[in-house]
Amino acid sequence: MILIDVYVNVNIESPAIRTRSALNPAAFEPRNPDYAARTRESFERQAAMRTLGATLAQVLPGQVVITLPWSEPLTQQHGFLHAGMVATALDSACGYAGFTLMPAEAAVLTIEFKINLLAPAQGEHFRMVGTVIKPGRTVTVCEGQAWAIDGGQERLVATMGCTLMAVIGREHIQG
Which helix (H) or strand (E) holds 162? Predict the structure, then answer.
């Protein structure tokens, strides 16, 4: 007699509503009580985000939301937001999500990312959500989601897996 035991774990969740990780980043405690101000100050120094017209819309421990408008100079030949722009903004969202949980003396650098382009980035504006999955003393793992917003409808257009490094004690790399 052969007995096969199968378990199926089904988690149905609307992707249009999902903005927090299943691991609940609300449970993360920032190491720096001034994490939000520090994150905003660092973001303001980032020329790449200014070039994209991006704004830091939300800063929580372990989660950051960056928004940007559609802009013709940032598009590819079909009028969609270029994948490089999507990757750049998602990388920053993930990086700053990790940065919110790092100590005051740390800076953050991305050491790896992988992006999945799920649909053309077509919309009036875009919301990039970076969420910490696993914070660490040196290495932090995040996920990113890029949402296109058009006519009040949101569509997931890209996801990212991102690995970050906390940089401490390097004079030329500051938070």
Answer: strand 153-167
Task: Encode pLDDT of 43-77 as tens digits.
Answer: 999 999 999 999 999 999 999 999 999 999 999 99
93 and 104 Cβ atoms separated by less than 8 Å? no
Residues 135 and 62 sit within 8 Å (Cβ to Cβ)? yes
pTM comes to 0.85
Q: From CA 175, how far away is CA 171, in angstroms rounded? A: 11
Sign of CA dihedral 27, 28, 33, 35: negative
Per-residue model confidence as pLDDT tens digits over 108-143 = 999 999 999 999 999 999 999 999 999 999 999 999
- DSSP 8-state assignment for residue 171: T
113, two tokens: 């990312």
**Angle, CA of 142, 68 and 73, to the nearest 5°:** 120
Return the SS3 of 15.
coil
CATH topology for 25-167 is Thiol Ester Dehydrase; Chain A (3.10.129)
Distances (CA, A) of 162 to 97, 110, 123, 124, 150: 11, 7, 24, 26, 26
Tokens 């030949």 belong to 77
Domain limits of the chain? 25-167
